[in-house]
DNA sequence: CTGTTAGCGCTTTCAA
DNA sequence: TTGAAAGCGCTAACAG
């Protein structure tokens, strides 16, 4: 297996076709100024040898690029981010490019290493869901002519293109909807306030309460759940409170899913009925939300489109006419779907 | 932004440190035979210039490799595959390598293009969830010394390492469990029989029925659903049957989720109760399975471990002592969890 | 229309 | 311990 570990080169193709390497190169680059019959011979040799141009060798030549886009994501196993990655891949593939994917696990150190590695591999650009607020590594990338697009989260002080969701607006509308449904004790489950989306969604939530003159009860607010299990535990605590919430705002799918799991578990004891549990508002739609035992509403958006948009911002800057444009900040709208169940 | 689009080279670092490029190279490769104080100067210059070794240039030198692993997946947005990808990424990163990710959308043509592109980028190896039974492009990769690991699905006639799940055994045990629970009319929702997993899971299902002397009613078998929506429609058809099944075996998460969505929709009309719907057996666990309105059991396994195993098979062949080993076929066990809900 | 030369960034000789 | 030369695979630029 893999005994004959040989990768043919231009020279060998040239020899086999009885031409010079340049003729091979020209043929493979469109065949300009190469006689048709010669092209035939070259292509035949290519096929026979199973030749593939060495893109790495090509990319070191002046003017050529690697055709690689570095993508750093915090958690590829989260459906939100994997769908995002799909969008990026699709759009980037249309431009004949490929993605180098790295998972940061919300770890800035890892993100920094990853970016360094990507630069070493001469990526044409970077699409990053930043794990924190550190931006030196990204500014550094830009300073070397490798543009950066931030997705889902922005970083203060970094002049880079970005696509994010209408976090504040969505959270605000979702919370208002809960209030309009008569709730005054509303819990909050979210990711850390130190994270861009966490901060903005929390702000939208708080703003809605203030507008409606509902006092914020900090005992009903939990903001450091990154995983479903953590969210579940936080939900358990909320439900144990002396005066538990009648509705819970969940700032992302991890938290909404954790909340539902906890409700489901408690329901299965049979001690209480579904009506005894708070209804849910989830920022992020997710599969099977409609199976919720309690009423659930969703602040919906399209992570795939988020990925496509991020890719387009980058490609425009690379190939299009946005090369020297000022940083563009896009905010994708979200839509509120009340009573998914 | 990106005005000063300059990537420093060894030469510039060398100049700045007052040494030759070779000394820089040596320093960066561990510093063997370079005086400590000279190393200091070099590293200082590297830091000041923000230099990153050009991996593409390095990789064209004899003996050097790209450190890239090509990963071709059928649908990265499917949580099963995205978790698989996470496992691959993690394991590969431990070996200092990076993944080039491509989505095939179950399209063999796209897969072939992708593999060609990967070879052009001089990947060290390939991890593929094959979209079909075509193997020429993969055999070709092997013939050029680029090993291939098949994941989740094998290809007849291709001598390559592989990790798959115990599809037949899992489906068999799941079906037997349904029969033991008293079911004799069991529906089947699956992906195409022409797909490796589809064929094997279907076979396990059929085998169980045969063993227990239950006749196979082909009107209860639907095997071409690739998406949740298709699965939903197929489920609707099953439920409309004159003599509908009392249990449905779902060969993967797409089909199980589609089935549950359909049940959920029909329940919401209030015309029938949960007891009127078949119980579910799902090959693949998935988030919120426990919210199912009908009893559900799960044939569980670990896609992340599948990814890790695929990566390890490949790395062993690249770096380890499996370089010339015969193809290794691993089958990961699955576990049956009856009555998740 | 085709080939020769030169050099991209790097590192393995080989010499000092 | 350091450097000079040479060449990896490829393709602009310049002949012819």
Q: Termini distance of chain A?
A: 55 Å
The percentage of residues in β strands of chain A lies in: 15-25%
SSE pattern of chain A, N- to C-terminal: HHHHEHEHEHEEHEHEHEHEEHEE
CATH architecture of the largest domain in chain A: 3-Layer(aba) Sandwich
CATH superfamily of the largest domain in chain A: Response regulator
Domain module count of chain A: 3
Largest beta-sheet characterization of chain A: 6 strands, parallel
What radius of gyration of chain A results from the CA coordinates? Answer: 26 Å
CATH third-level topology of the largest domain in chain A: Rossmann fold
What is the mean predicted local confidence, pLDDT of chain A? 96
CATH level 1 class label of the largest domain in chain A: Alpha Beta
Total strands of chain A: the figure is 12
Give the helix/strand class of chain A: alpha/beta
- Low-pLDDT sequence parts of chain A: none
Indicate the overall shape of chain A.
elongated
Helix share, percent of chain A: 40-55%
Instruction: Kindly report the spatial arrangement of strands forming the biggest sheet of chain A.
Output: 2-1-3-4-5-11
Q: Helical element count of chain A? A: 12
**Assembly state:** homodimer
The greatest interface between two protein chains, and residues involved on each side, is: A-B, 71 and 71 residues
């Amino acid at each position: 297996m893999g005994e004959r570990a040989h990768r043919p080169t231009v020279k060998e193709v040239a020899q086999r076709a009885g031409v010079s390497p340049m003729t091979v190169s020209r043929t493979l680059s469109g065949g300009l100024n190469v006689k048709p019959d010669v092209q035939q011979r070259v292509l035949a040799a290519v096929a026979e040898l199973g030749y593939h141009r060495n893109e790495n060798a090509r990319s070191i030549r002046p003017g050529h690029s690697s055709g690689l886009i570095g993508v750093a994501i915090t958690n590829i196993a989260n459906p939100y981010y994997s769908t995002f990655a799909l969008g990026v891949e699709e759009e980037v593939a249309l431009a004949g490019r490929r993605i180098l994917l790295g998972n940061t696990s919300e770890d800035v150190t890892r993100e920094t290493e990853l970016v360094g590695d990507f630069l070493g591999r001469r990526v044409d650009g970077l699409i990053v869901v930043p794990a924190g607020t550190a931006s030196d590594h990204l500014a550094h990338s830009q300073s070397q002519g490798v543009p950066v697009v931030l997705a889902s989260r922005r970083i203060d002080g970094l002049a880079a293109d970005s696509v994010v969701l209408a976090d504040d607006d969505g959270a605000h509308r979702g919370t208002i909807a809960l209030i309009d449904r008569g709730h005054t004790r509303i819990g909050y489950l979210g990711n850390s306030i130190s994270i861009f989306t966490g901060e903005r969604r929390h702000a939208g939530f708080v703003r809605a309460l203030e507008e409606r003159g509902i006092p914020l009860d900090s005992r009903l607010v939990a903001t450091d759940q990154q995983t479903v299990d953590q969210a579940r535990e936080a939900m358990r605590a909320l439900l144990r409170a002396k005066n538990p919430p009648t509705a819970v705002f969940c700032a992302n799918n991890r938290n909404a899913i954790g909340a539902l799991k906890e409700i489901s578990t408690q329901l299965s004891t049979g001690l209480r009925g579904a009506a005894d549990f708070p209804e849910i508002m989830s920022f992020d739609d997710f599969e099977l939300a409609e199976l919720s035992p309690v009423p659930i509403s969703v602040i919906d958006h399209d992570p795939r489109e988020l990925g496509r948009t991020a890719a387009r911002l980058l490609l425009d800057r690379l190939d299009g006419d946005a090369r020297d444009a000022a940083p563009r900040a896009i905010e994708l709208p979200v839509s509120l779907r009340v009573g998914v169940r």
